[in-house]
Amino acid sequence: MELTYTLCSLEDLQLLRQISEETFSIAFAKDNNPIDFKNYIEKAFALVRIKEELLNPNSDFFFAYHDNELVAYFKVNVEEAQSDVKRDDSLELERIYVLSQFQGLGIGEKLLDHIKKLASEKNKKMLWLGVWQENKKAVKFYERHGFEKFDTHPYFIGSDEQTDWLMRFNLSTL
Ligand SMILES: CC(C)(COP(=O)(O)OP(=O)(O)OC[C@H]1O[C@@H](n2cnc3c(N)ncnc32)[C@H](O)[C@@H]1OP(=O)(O)O)[C@@H](O)C(=O)NCCC(=O)NCCS
């Protein structure tokens, strides 16, 4: 399955906001208290918030297409835009979402390969991410692709405190 990638710009703001909220809700609404969840998504996926993130020079959003159809998006951060590790030689994969109807087809694997290369081309040594410890499918997916847990951090969905695993991939093994 061949994928093509486009770097998102302000012109993509509405679509990016919609895809971000939709993919997050489909993945996680069922596992969360509805009020906490609503409070979270209203803030996290507000148009002004996504616009701010798009305008951050140290953050990039990409859409991934297969046969001209949008199948996934991801967001990467460097330097100060990273949320935990803020090393010069690290890159954070903050979000990676395959649209639900395209999951389990190998797209996630292709995305990770692409992101590892992208990080390597930026001369980064470490690719890292935070994943909800209860998101077993994603944890397993990252482990299968060479990521290992190195820490945890608390993550709030509304007032509900959850635990994210911080996982890293050593880019010098590429
Ligand atoms: C986690 C996620 C990014 C993985 O992407 P994906 O495209 O589903 O991943 P892949 O298809 O490459 O691999 C997933 C599974 O499909 C299987 N698979 C891979 N290629 C396949 C193919 N051609 N046919 C059928 N199954 C396949 C893999 O073996 C893997 O199995 P596993 O779950 O037992 O590990 C995606 O499922 C997703 O967006 N989930 C919801 C949001 C989320 O949790 N994001 C991560 C937040 S940190």
UniProtKB/TrEMBL annotation:
Keywords: Acyltransferase, Ribonucleoprotein, Ribosomal protein, Transferase. SUPFAM superfamilies: Acyl-CoA N-acyltransferases (Nat). One of its GO terms (molecular function) is acyltransferase activity, transferring groups other than amino-acyl groups. The keyword Oxidoreductase does not apply. One of its GO terms (cellular component) is ribosome. It comes from the Bacteria. InterPro entries: Acyl_CoA_acyltransferase, GNAT_dom, N-term/lysine_N-AcTrnsfr. It comes from Maribacter stanieri. Residues 3-172 form the N-acetyltransferase domain. CDD domains: NAT_SF. This is Ribosomal protein S18 acetylase RimI. Pfam families: Acetyltransf_1 (PF00583). Gene3D superfamilies: 3.40.630.30.
